[in-house]
Amino acid sequence: xxxxxxxxxxxxxxxxxxxxxxxxxxxxxxxxxxxxxxxxxxxxxxxxxxxxxxxxxxxxxxxxxxxxxxxxxxxxxxxxxxxxxxxxxxxxxxxxxxxxxxxxxxxxxxxxxxxxxxxxxxxxxxxxxxxxxxxxxxxxxxxxxxxxxxxxxxxxxxxxxxxxxxxxxxxxxxxxxxxxxxxxxxxxxxxxxxxxxxxxxxxxxxxxxxxxxxxxxxxxxxxxxxxxxxxxxxxxxxxxxxxxxxxxxxxxxxxxxxxxxxxxxxxxxxxxxxxxxxxxxxxxxxxxxxxxxxxxxxxxxxxxxxxxxxxxxxxxxxxxxxxxxxxxxxxxxxxxxxxxxxxxxxx
Length: 347
Hints:
The protein is α/β, with parallel strands linked by helices. Helices cover 41% and strands 12% of the residues. The protein has helices spanning 32-57, 72-79, 95-100, 105-112, 145-160, 178-189, 209-212, 237-252, 281-291, 293-303, 309-332, and strands at residues 12-17, 20-24, 87-89, 166-171, 194-200, 203-204, 207-208, 229-233, 258-263. The strands form three sheets. Strands 3-4-5-9-8 form a five-stranded parallel β-sheet, sandwiched between helices. It is globular and about 50 Å long. 50% of the residues are buried.
């Protein structure tokens, strides 16, 4: 059976955002432990990014810095469906992906500040971090380039005969890059086990989807290659998990690639230098008040009696302690020795 076109099985839809509705459909059944774990993981990403923004403003982080605030449910929900050996690759808005993959907050923050204890030894910065141990292949600064690399990871899995799946994350802006469709073609031709996750946060830098894309339903971008697509409420971690389960099962069954369009939203600008004047404050506030992924889980935990306000405050405190420790480490850790410039250079 082919995957559903969209995650709209329930027929219910939420309010419009950026000219497009969230599709609310199939959701995974979460236990108390699932919801508490998702709450903690999303909160860790949120607090980490808030601290990274603070350190950037203080001058401890240089260059570009793209924050993931608002989009936390996407990567946390997807990660819940993965098994050991599955691979992840993404673009430059990558801090949240690394934390969800299990990479240490200290290592990520120290890389942001260019210190020796960073995951790329202080040489990669915000956009170029990797972990072979966690099967995380970056972090890439070239828009859309990671899609072809993620397709290559899937080719390697097919060649080796395992049932591992690769996840290639990219945004609505990168979805208009030509190499994306070259990758779609080869993945479909060879039935590669790759999930293309389009994080549609409504704006490619400062350009809205409607101004840049003739086809604004990104879940349908693979139709000419016979790649099925699912449109998902990317602000609901349960909806993401349900779609992730369906997509991973599709790939592991040898049926080829699949597209997941995650309807999500970033609260901050494209990067720290972006004042985001292309949208209104009311639009951002509406998204925060009606669709925030963390507040949804918090409300559900309290409503079901699975957690009290005090217990959730303790989780927040524990997360803040982890983030504060990572920030202290990232400021105190020494910079890499000059000789480090020549290590890991292959060409």
